[in-house]
Amino acid sequence: QSLLTQPPSASGTPGQRVTISCSGSSSNIESNYVYWYQQLPGTAPKLLISRNNQRPSGVPDRFSGSKSGTAASLAISGLRSEDEADYYCVAWDDSLSVLFGGGTKLTVL
Amino acid sequence: QVQLQESGPGLVKPSQTLSLTCTVSGGSVNRGGYYWSWIRQPAGKGLEWIGRIYSSGTTKYNPSFNSRVTISLDTSNNQFSLKLSSVTAADTAVYYCTRDLTVDGWFDPWGQGTLVTVSS
Predict the structure, then answer these.
(1) For chain A, N or C: smaller number of CB within 10 Å?
(2) What CA–CA distances, in Å, run from B120 to B11, B16, B17, B81, B87?
(3) Can you tell me the distance from the alpha carbon of B34 to that of B24, in angstroms, rounded to the nearest whole number?
(4) C-alpha to C-alpha distance for B106 and B36, rounded to whole angstroms
(5) What is d(CA A10, CA A85) in angstroms, rounded to the nearest whole number?
(6) What is the pLDDT of residue B31?
(7) Residue A95 is nearest to which of B46, B63, B105, comparing CB atoms?
(8) Block mean pLDDT (10 aa), chain B, length 120
(9) How confident is the model at residue A80 (pLDDT cuts 50, 70, 90)?
């Protein structure tokens, strides 16, 4: 059982705005950066958001990250069919390990 | 542009040692400031960080694996390696190598991953 809790699934229609939550604790999310990764079917994960809310070069501005206290969220606006993927939050935990959330499968209806 | 490629046996017997190598191109594994990590993903499941090695050879492991895992650096071949001992079926997974830009979860880029099955 992951110490970073994500909803197992999320969905939306094209053009909609969808948010994916990531719940942690004072030993991980509250005191450390949060990262988000996108994993398209059959491929390796790709960095989507770094340091809570920074988009690496090449990531569309439809993707945004935020953090408040022990929770973080990923928002995707203007949803597109190619956004259908698994999304993972990641944070360092003070138990001396990198933690991954359980992942959220996003379906574009 | 840094690229990573995993290699190693796709089948390992239970109780034996899993050994994988990650070959890095477009950058040097002994360049200061970067770490190199291994991450795995069982089929249909989430991701799990195994451990990392710094360019100096210093390592840090996930406590869940601590006694079974060894990550090492081969600077002459610009590679880093993973050894996981006493494997069981629960270690069956796709194993990814990745560059670790910080110590807190910034992994970029990733290798394509390699499937390792533990079975007799």
Answers:
(1) N
(2) 9, 10, 13, 24, 11
(3) 12
(4) 11
(5) 10
(6) 83
(7) B63
(8) 96 97 94 91 94 92 90 95 97 97 90 97
(9) very high
Residue B115, H or E segment: strand B114-118
Q: Which of A44, A50, A103 sits opposite B106 (nearest CB)?
A: A50
**Residue A7 pLDDT level (bands cut at 50, 70, 90):** very high
Supply B94's token pair: 């796709």
pLDDT at A96 over 90: no
For residue A6, the 8-state DSSP code is: -
Using CB atoms within 10 A of its CB, is residue A39 exposed (0-12), middle (13-18) or buried (19+)? Answer: buried
DSSP string, A32-98: S-EEEEEE-TTS--EEEEBTTTBPPTT--TTEEEEEETTEEEEEE-S--GGG-EEEEEEEEETTTEE
Decide if pLDDT at A1 tops 80. no
Paired sense of beta strands A9-12 and B35-41, if any: unpaired
Chain A: give the shortest CA distance to residue B104, in Å: 5
Q: Which two tokens stand for residue B12?
A: 């390992």
Q: Are strands A71-76 and A46-49 parallel, antiparallel or unpaired?
A: unpaired
Task: Using CA coordinates, name the residue in chain A closest to B37.
Answer: A98
